[in-house]
Amino acid sequence: MEAVRATERTQLRRLPKRATYQRETIYSILDEALVCHVGFAYWDQPYVIPTLHVRDGDRLYLHGSAASRMLNTAATQLPVCVTVTLIDGLVLARSAFHHSVNYRSVVILGNAARVDDREAKLGVLRALVEKIAPGRWAHTRTPTDKELAATMVLQFPIEEASAKVRTGQPMDDEADYALPHWAGVIPLRLAASAPIVDPRMPSGTATPEHVLALTKSFALPNGQR
Ligand SMILES: Cc1cc2nc3c(=O)[nH]c(=O)nc-3n(C[C@H](O)[C@H](O)[C@H](O)COP(=O)(O)OP(=O)(O)OC[C@H]3O[C@@H](n4cnc5c(N)ncnc54)[C@H](O)[C@@H]3O)c2cc1C
Questions:
Q1: What is the pLDDT of residues 187-197, one digit of tens each?
Q2: Which atom of ligand 1 is closest in space to residue 163's alpha carbon?
Q3: Is the pTM value of this prediction over 0.90?
Q4: pLDDT for res 225
Q5: Residue 10 lies in a domain
Q6: Confidence class of residue 85 from pLDDT cuts 50, 70 and 90?
Q7: Which atom of ligand 1 is closest in space to residue 87's alpha carbon?
Q8: Same domain, 216 and 106
Q9: How far apart are alpha carbons 25 and 8 in whole angstroms?
Q10: Where residue 147 sits, what CATH number does that domain have?
């Protein structure tokens, strides 16, 4: 896979050794993250709005209410910045100064375009549902025409983008390694608890396989709680 083009705007200046422009890395971060943040300027005020996203090939898709300010602003071809962050650990250094977090993040710059074709729109909504819960689309009522009309879908090219990744132990100053303060990493991950059934489900309804599989995919290793 070809790397995305690194531009003047996406060239990391702070700790550039943590940068990558490889699509594999950028895509894996986008695919693992459940939430992105969309930044845009509205009149003189910048906004950064959290929302769901899904990637298909070299495009990122966003959806929401047709009345959404974020989507309507982005749909006018104004420049947008989409950011995704995964937190992998807390990094405790000997010095207060070198405390940090391990992370994988992506920044994408560009312009969005509306997806209005009915089938294409349905395809994106399906991909969004399947991203949240693989196998779920077949277990849901499909959107009505009214729901589709109330939903805006945007596509966003993944062309001008960067990823930044921090891994490993704290980077203390050499002299500080003699200090007695505990130093190391506390790994973090997203974990699921047991599913809580909606009380309006008929009593005794069995938990479907895809729900159990989804819960299991977020389980901690070795049955940890
Ligand atoms: C969870 C998390 C916590 C962080 N905490 C801090 C903190 O407390 N203090 C701090 O100074 N920095 C922190 N960072 C790093 C921060 O995101 C910036 O990379 C850093 O502050 C440099 O910003 P800058 O505007 O000087 O970037 P520049 O290097 O000038 O940015 C130039 C270009 O590099 C790319 N870029 C910059 N940062 C990122 C990124 N994180 N991911 C992907 N592409 C990027 C963008 O395309 C940007 O346009 C954190 C990052 C993460 C993910």
A1: 999 999 999 99
A2: 43
A3: yes
A4: 64
A5: no
A6: very high
A7: 1
A8: no
A9: 20
A10: 2.30.110.10
